[in-house]
Amino acid sequence: MNTAIHSLVLQLFAVGLAGSLCAQTFTDVGPAAPIPGANDISQLSTSGNQTWPDGLNYFTDNNPPVGQTFTTGTNAMNLVSVAIKTAGLNSGNGYGTPASTPTYYLRIYSMSNSTASLFITFSAANPGFTDGHWLQWSGLNVPLVTNKTYAFSFGIQPTGGGYAALAVATNAYAGGEIAIIPINGGTITTGGSHKFDAVFELGLRAAATSIPATMPLPSPTYGWNLGNTMEATWGVPYVTAAPFYTAANAGFNAVRIPCAWDFNATTNITGNATNYPINPTYMAQVKQVVDWAMGAGMYVMINDHWDDGWMENNIGASVNPAINAKMNSYWTQIATAFAGYDNRLLFAGANEPNVNSPAEMTTLMFYYQTFVSAVRGVGGNNTNRWLVLQNIADPSWMNSLPTDSTPNRLMVEYHCYSPAQFAILSSDASWGNVQYFWGQAYHYSGDPARNCVAPEEGGIDAGFQQLYDQYVSRGIPVLVGEFGAASKPSLAATNATESAWNRASSYYWHKYVAESARGHGLSPFFWSTPGTPFDWTSGAVNDAQLISVLTGGIAPPPPNGAPYAASGLTATASNSQVALSWTAGSGATSYNLYRAAESGYESTTPFVTGLTGTAYTDTNLNSGTTYYYQVVAANGSGPSGFSPEAHATTTGVNPDSTQFNFETDPQRWAAGGSPIAGIATSTAQHFSGRQSLAVSFNGTAAGTSSASVGNVVVPAGTTITFHVWIPSGSKVTTLQPYLQDYNWAWTSGYYGSLTANAWNTITLAVPPTAVTPLQQLGIQFTTSAGWSGTCYIDSVNWPVTTPPTLAPIANQTVNVGQTVAFTASATDSSQPQRTLTFALLAGATNATLNTNSGAFSFRPLVTQANSTNSFTLKVADNGTPSLSATQNFSVVVNPLPAPGISNISFAGGQFSFHVSGQSGPDYAIETSTNLTKWTSVFLTNSPALPFNWTNAVTNSPVRFYRIKLGPPLP
User: Fold this and answer.
1) Distances (CA, A) of 416 to 92, 272, 553
2) Of the candidates 6, 11, 407, which has an alpha carbon nearest to the alpha carbon of residue 214?
3) What is the pLDDT of residues 259-306, one digit of tens each?
4) DSSP class of residue 207?
5) pLDDT at position 640, please?
6) pLDDT for 820-850, tens place per residue?
């Protein structure tokens, strides 16, 4: 019902920001060696402990520092701890005194022969330890691939302070040895005899190896961008594996890698054929960074970024054959290069396509169809790969997706730089002045002109709710591929106070956007560029506070002494009430609650204030109604930022299910024109339900005024119905329902014969050519003279057409003859509801489906033993055009072993034997006297096994028996 997403999707060049790590700890764990786990790698012997083994300087102040190489096994593992034993040689000099010993560093390297490549560094203050004790790093999360050599090093920066020797032992570990390793990587130095190890214990945890194809991204998603790197048409800055491992250990689990394929391709015309080969060197560079990211355990998305705008800045009302040919060529090459990568790698067809009309959206969807078809056509793992489709126009324009040979593998992407003056600008621009302070609690009274006005918290929530309604609620995943707020470097140099308020506000913005996205079922990716929040070469963290707020940590409070924001707000509904609870905000003395019937439209005035606890029950609510809540902490210095939004739907049936029913609040409707004094919800009159919108008049003369609402998604060609109560004695002479479409085109109706003391039903047809969403929808009232009184508006409604939803269908494994039966569960939220029919698009030909009820049945045949049967089930409505949904599922049929005959006996003129075998199939016993002609003498459907069978003896001198399995059987 709104288009708040408009303010979230703004064109951006390349802005970035400067960023708490996960809780790695460094402690003295005492003299006893850690007990290795089942997957650990260790060398615990100290029998060879000595100084300068093989001439190596193995003291912690050595430069380069001492380390150990080691080799993984056949299973993928995550390195979660590193323990190192000190020598116990009393060789230190204040090594155990934190005040005199500088920071200790643990570095992890990947090895190629004798060359070490650094990919992550951990640092911590000296914990204070006793020489001879074990020192342990915990809380690590470093993915290690199978059958590969790695190394770690341990030491202090060689700038003074104490030093300590590490324990060494005669080599008892075959997978590596003690070595001197350059800090930033390079050629390592090992001892001449190769007979010494460090004394160490590496804690390893099995890594996840099975990734469901239906899961596009980890949940919750903590994503970042490798921005200004592989998409840079001005050259590719150097990047290493280090930032990926830093990001993974900080809590990020996904990365978006913007690319520039067109810039790194040529046009090749051979005969009458034109193709566009991508530079192999560039392809290899992209593969390298993808490998680093996946090696760090991340999901990865690669796209075609701005790339000089070859496609996204040239989208017209018709398809350009050259652009379409490039789309096909590039994605065929990319899909071929990455065909062997699993579904942790996603492809995105564009970045920010510049679409300004529904006609241009049609052109973009043609290019996207080419993208999807090209990738699927390559085969390999591309058959199942998730593909991403970008949009920066209104979501209502992108109301369908391309046809895909693999259902339920498409997702959509939007970006969030809202509001632009805060998120994009670092200084004043011709189109607007930079804003420094976002969020009501973070507005700075000393410079109010730099405070953001809108959209603030509510605008973020409303925009993400629109994406949820448009896509996520229908099973289409959404990622927020970029979000970020530009730094304001001039403030730091000129105004320390404003800089402090801006930085606190910026952290709060990043926290709020990320949490709101996840709260609405979206997957957010922070726009990160070289150096922010970690260095692209060394992986060093440059902004730990930013990393913290992006990965689930708390945002700093306003600098005026206000409390931290409350968190963890939950809402649980019952019949007519919602129970709320939340986690206290540090420094809070009370809490205020806000409520709305639409996400993001909480009133500026709380509906409950001064709560001193962390729970509240909201009572006397409407049935079948969704309520949205936020909580704000407060103390004597002022309010905190808002908590993330929570919502709940009360049980029962809403008494008025129309789009604008005014059962809870005015639903964003506002008054315009002096004859109308104001609007509010009221129980005095109602067309349906128990409330309506009261429009109060207090005019002193004749005039025209209106009640209206903006940003409304109404399908073109539909009819809107309004209900208006006109009291007797009013001076209202005419009603004019009106709308202004996306292009501000005006459409109105005219009603001059009104019935007093009654509900007047009026309608307005949305032109078939109207471009929605509507800028304005409302009713204009004309009065013939001054008048004070109240009219009422209620149940503003229009038919709603939405695709049906089809519940997921579980995969099953059965034996031959065991029936798979279920009734597909489909729902339709269209108003009025439409008739649904079912169809089986793919699957075994002996499966049946009731087209009206969705009842499915499949009983595998003997010929289908040891097979996997893939099915695609579709539900469609009877609209024009018909809308539909599909679900894929599989039925695995186990191998069928041969039945057995045993315990053969003949007694009393009876011949009998024992039949065994697999449960599920039908069993037949056949007999023959000549091994040529067989006759069935016994049939049983799916019997309990084993069973005995007995046959009376006949006069035949010889009789043969055999077991036959079905279905089918005669």
Assistant:
1) 54, 44, 20
2) 407
3) 999 999 999 887 777 899 999 999 999 999 999 999 899 999 999 999
4) P
5) 97
6) 999 999 988 777 778 999 999 989 999 999 9
Tokens of 257: 């890698």
Residue 277's pLDDT is: 95
**CA distance linking residue 660 with residue 641, whole number of Å:** 30
pLDDT at res. 6: 36
Beta bridge partners of 708: 670, 778
Residue type, 881: P
**H/E element holding 470?**
helix 457-470
Query: Distance (Å, rounded) from C-alpha 560 to C-alpha 510?
Result: 20
Cα–Cα distance measured from residue 362 to residue 632, given in angstroms and rounded to the nearest whole number: 44
Q: Pairing state of beta strands 478-483 and 855-858?
A: unpaired
Please give the structure tokens belonging to residue 832. 């009025």
CB 387 within 8 A of CB 403: no
Q: How far apart are CA 118 and CA 538, in angstroms?
A: 8
Residues 116-128 pLDDT 10s: 999 899 988 888 8
User: Which residue spans within 683-835 are E strands per DSSP?
Assistant: 692-699, 703-712, 719-726, 732-740, 746-748, 758-765, 774-783, 787-797, 805-806, 812-814, 820-823, 826-827
Q: Alpha-carbon distance 500 to 137, whole Å?
A: 34
d(CA 418, CA 463): 10
Residue that the structure tokens 């073109």 belong to = 716
Residue 423, H or E segment = helix 420-423
Joined tokens for residue 419? 């509001």
The Cα 890–Cα 894 span in angstroms is: 13
The enclosing H or E element of 546 equals helix 544-550
Polymer length of the chain: 970
If one counts every other C-beta atom within 10 angstroms of the C-beta of residue 721, the result is 15
Give the 3-state secondary structure of residue 221: coil
CA 9 – CA 938 distance, rounded (Å): 72
Can you give the pLDDT at residue 956?
Answer: 64
Q: How many angstroms separate the CA atoms of 66 and 199, rounded?
A: 12
Q: pLDDT tens across 920-936, in order?
A: 999 999 999 888 899 89
Q: Residue 103 to residues 182, 503, 804, 845: CA-CA distances in angstroms?
A: 18, 28, 60, 69
Question: Which pairs count as long-range contacts for 728-732, CB under 8 Å and 24+ apart, including other chains?
Answer: 728/756, 728/757, 729/756, 729/789, 730/697, 730/756, 730/783, 730/787, 730/789, 730/791, 731/702, 731/783, 731/784, 731/785, 731/786, 731/787, 732/697, 732/781, 732/782, 732/783, 732/787, 732/791
Handedness of CA 569, 601, 607, 559 (dihedral sign): positive
Helix (H) / strand (E) element for 347: namely strand 345-348
The pTM assigned to this predicted structure is: 0.82
Please name every residue paired with 117 in a beta bridge, in sequence order, or none if there are none.
110
Please give the structure tokens belonging to residue 635: 């103390």
Check: CB of residue 334 under 8 Å from CB of residue 300: no
Instruction: Give a three-class secondary structure readout of 736-760.
Output: EEEEECCCCCEEECCECCCCECEEE
DSSP classification of residue 631: E
**Run of H or E including 580:** strand 578-583
Q: Determine how many CB atoms are found less than 10 A away from the CB of residue 575.
A: 9
Start-end of H helices in 59-208: none
**Consecutive 10-residue runs of the chain (970 residues): their mean pLDDT?**
37 27 80 93 80 83 91 90 87 64 89 93 88 92 92 83 82 91 94 91 85 88 94 78 92 96 91 88 94 93 95 96 96 97 96 95 96 96 96 90 90 96 92 94 96 90 93 92 93 92 97 96 95 90 94 95 96 94 97 94 91 96 93 97 95 90 93 93 95 96 96 92 97 97 96 96 96 96 96 94 86 95 90 88 94 96 94 88 84 94 85 92 92 89 91 73 91
Nearest to 602 by CA among 593, 614, 610: 593
Residue-wise DSSP of 260-324: -TTTTB--EEETTEEE-PBPHHHHHHHHHHHHHHHHTT-EEEEE---GGGTTTT---SS--HHHH
With contact defined as beta carbons under 8 Å apart, do 949 and 915 qualify? yes
